[in-house]
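Same chain as my last thread, 91 residues:
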Amino acid sequence: MSHLALVLLHALRLLQLAVLARVILSWIDPFPRHPVVRKFTGFIDALARPFKVVIPMGPGMGLDLGPLFLLLVIEAVQQLVARLALLLVLG
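reply #2:
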């Protein structure tokens, strides 16, 4: 597999872990005003915004499915990169 494909696959895996970390931060929210946390959550939220679907769970509460859909898109891109790299190697 090409080095570029491996780097891209690792970057996508790190992005998946970042999305999962964002989901966990949304549940526990230890330092919501810390500048690093705000930049991190802002970055991940901006990526998930196009996929935002909120299911009402009660007054003032909702379940945002944006991160789940973002994870599915990242997984699909990973599969595509891996298959393309394999096709290039096997030629």
